[in-house]
Amino acid sequence: MSLAIWTPEGLSSNARPLSGRAWRAVEAQHQVSTAKLTDSLADQHRLEEIIEITKPVIPLECRHLNFLLSTPFRYGAPYPKGSRFRRAGLTLGVFYSSELAKTAMIEIAFWRLLFFAESPQTPWPKNPPEFTAFAVEFATEQAIDLSTHPFDAHRTVWRHPTDYESCQSFAEAARAQGVEVIKYESARTQNRAINFALLVCSVFQKAEEVDRQTWRIHFSASGIRLFGEMPKESIDLPRGIFTDPRTANMTWNR
After folding, report:
1. Is residue 142 in a domain?
2. Which end of the chain is more exposed for a tag (fewer CB within 10 A), N or C?
3. What b/e readout covers 119-142, taking b as 16+ CB neighbours within 10 angstroms?
């Protein structure tokens, strides 16, 4: 790969303003889990405070944010395996998100499927688990769009299903030049859906999420189905839709 677009000059000349909404999905279990262990709201609140103390420290510049926004930026414990734009180890956080709520749900459905691929004896959930897709507003003067020229010449590298080395190196170079957001294509969809990697807390325009949706993920021998509520939406992900070697030998009948 040509490194010309990674030079300080190349990154600076291709950085552009970018703003909008970004969607992220999380399992809807935070308050439900602690409620099961306590007898009152006061006890539940105290338990959540104790749990918060045990978690890695939130950077000072992120502490004004709601926990949904600040959590990806927690430091203090090694990042276990690394991800597309973040190396394993004590590395800076990344808020991974998507342009659309349904793209965020497809992303999380893939990672859930990967868990089952690595655990072939685990049965499918009897009841479709519930997830919350939430939207944030962001804005920056320094964004790089990997889906456009000249970066799209390396599309297969940015979308590689398992090898993140080039993406991680690019993110490090981009951070060094003050880039705050990376816009890129999802590797888990076939329709060039867009994702965002928000690299710093300062891009958030509000301290809390600006919208929420409830979704459920249904796994079966036929594939995956996503059900959204308010607005109603359903997505069918048949077997084999994810072109990832880690799910190639997936045990669907369980």
Report:
1. yes
2. N
3. eeeeeeeeebeebbbbbbbbebeb
Q: Is the pLDDT of residue 109 over 90?
A: yes
> Is 144 part of any domain?
yes
pLDDT digit string (tens) for 114-163?
999 999 999 999 999 899 999 999 999 999 999 999 999 999 999 999 99
Range of the domain at 80: 4-247
Q: Does residue 252 fall inside a structural domain?
A: no
* Residue 253 located in a structural domain: no
Domain count of the fold of the chain:
1
Q: Average pLDDT over the chain, rounded to whole?
A: 89
How do residues 70-86 score in pLDDT, each as one tens digit? 999 987 678 888 999 99
Which of 98, 79, 84 shows the shortest CA–CA distance to 25? 98
